[in-house]
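In keeping with the milestone schedule agreed at the kick-off meeting, the structural modelling team has produced records for the first pair of proteins. Each record is given below as a sequence line and a C-alpha cell line. The laboratory manager (R.T.) confirmed that both were archived under the project's standard naming scheme.
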Amino acid sequence: EDFLKLSNSIQLHDQQQRAEFPGIPPFRSKLAIEAFLLVEFTLSCGEFDKMVIVEGDIKDGILLEMIQSSI
C-alpha cells in the first residue's frame, strides 16, 4: 500500500522533480516511472507480504548469479 502511494506520487512529477526526491539518484530519475510501473506489475502477479529494497541493481544480481553458476 505504501509503495503504491509512492509510485503514484512519483508519476505525478516531472523528471526534475523526481531527481530531487530523497532516495532517487538524479541519474535514475529518467527511468523512475518505468521502474515503478515494473514493480507495480510484478506485485500484481502474486501475493506478497513484504518488499526488500537493496542498494544494488539488476546488473549486480545477474553478475552474482553468473559467478555462482560458474563455481
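The second protein of the pair:
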Amino acid sequence: RLSEGDGVIIAIDLYPDFYNISETDPVYDILYGSVKGYHAVCLVGYDDNKQCYGGVKGAFKFINSWGTSWGLDGYGWISYDMLSYGEVGRGYGYIVDAGEPLYYENDFQYAVKDGEAEIKRYIGSGGDVKIPETMGGYIVTKIGNYAFENCETLTNVTIPDTIAEIGCHAFYACEALENITIPDSVVKIETGAFSQCSSLKTVFIGSGINEVVDPFGSCESLERIDVHPDNTSFASEDGVLFDKTMKTLIRYPEAKSGAYTIPDSVEEIGDRAFIYCDGLTDIAIPSSVKRIGDYAFFSCGIITEVIIPEGAEEIGDGAFNVCLDLKKLVLPDSVIKIGIDMCTLPDGYSPTTVYCSAGTYAHAYANLNCPQYEARMSVPTLDGGSEELTIVRDSFSLHRLRLENADGKELYFAVYDNGALKRAYASYSGEISDIDWEDIESGKAFIWDGNMKPLTARSIS
C-alpha cells in the first residue's frame, strides 16, 4: 500500500535510539537499553537501499506526531530489521488512505475521478439546498459517503438528474429534512443513506433505481415510500416498498400505524422490513410467505400477537426481538430454520409465549431457547376420534401437561426406569404440573375415562 501512496500506522516500542534520530543519525536501527514507552507512527515510504547499522540496507520512512522540531522536520526512518523484532514492531497494518485531491466550490467540497465530480462534503449553512449539476467544469455524478452527515439545518435538498449514486450515510442524521425526491438518474442508494433522518416523512424513488441497501433505518416520522411506476426493480403499494414482483416486502415505513395485511404475492419479508414500527398494532401474514428476514419485526413495540401460517420455512435472527408487548407467537410445522434470539425481551418484561406442534423443529427450537411455550399434539382415540394434549412450559426448568378437553377424564403420566415404574402423576383436572423435561422426554401419558377405561389407542410419549 505504501507504493500506492497510502500510509500504514504501526505500533512500536521506544528504545533510546529512537530519540537520536537526526540528520546525522536518521534511522531508528539499534536495539539497546530499556524500553522508554510505546508509540504509534505512520509509515509513508520506504527505501530498500537505505543504509542502516551494521551495513544492513532497507528502511521505512515514517512521520511522527511530535512536531517539525523533532527528527527530520517531523520525519524519521526505521529499519526493516527493527520491525522484524517482536518486541519493537508490536503491530502494524492499519491503512491510511491517501485519497484523491479535494477541491472547493461554493458550499461543497468535491473530488474528481475519471472525469466526473463527487461531492465529498457539504459545508454550507443548510436550509433549502440545490446540488449543482457541475463543479469545476465536471458533471456531478455522486453524492459521496457521509457528504451531508449530521447537517441538522438541512430542510430540503434538490438532487439533479446527473446524480447516479448516493453513498453510504450520505444524509445520515439530517434531522430537519422532511421530504426527498430521488431523480430517475440515480441507480444506487447505499447503506443508511437517509438513516436517522428523524423528520423525514415521504420518499419518492425515481425510475432508475436498481439497488437500495437499507437506506431508511430509524426514520421515525417516515409515512410512505413511493416508487415511479416505470421502475423495473422496485414497486410501492400504499406507501410500502417492495421489489418489482411484489414477492419481497423491503420496507414498511416506521410512522405508519394500525393493522396491516401483507399482500398474498409476498414470499419474503425482508431483513429489517418492519424494524422500529412502534405503531403497528396487528400484522396478517399470508401463507405465501416462505421467509421472515433478520430483525424483520425488531422493536415493534405494541404488537401483541403474531400468527405465522403454514408454509413459512425460515425465520431470521432476532426477527421478533424487543417486541415488548408480544404475548403470543404461533410457529407453523413447516418451519425448518430459526435464527438466534428470535424473540428475546429485556429483563423485566414477561416473555413471549411460543405456540407450536409437539415434535416439530419449532418445538425443538422453543425448548432450547424460549422460556415459555405451548406445544400441542393430537392423540388418536380408540373410537376413531382424537384428544388434544399440550406440553406447557412456564420456565426453563418445569413443564405442565394439559388435556384440552378434560371433562370426566383422567390424565395419567408415568416415568419408567428399565421397565420399572419410577414416578407417576395423575389428575382429574386435566393438568399435571411441575414435570422435569427429562421426564417429559422419557415418560408416557395415558387418557382414561372416569371408570379407568382407556380412551387413547396408545401411550403418548
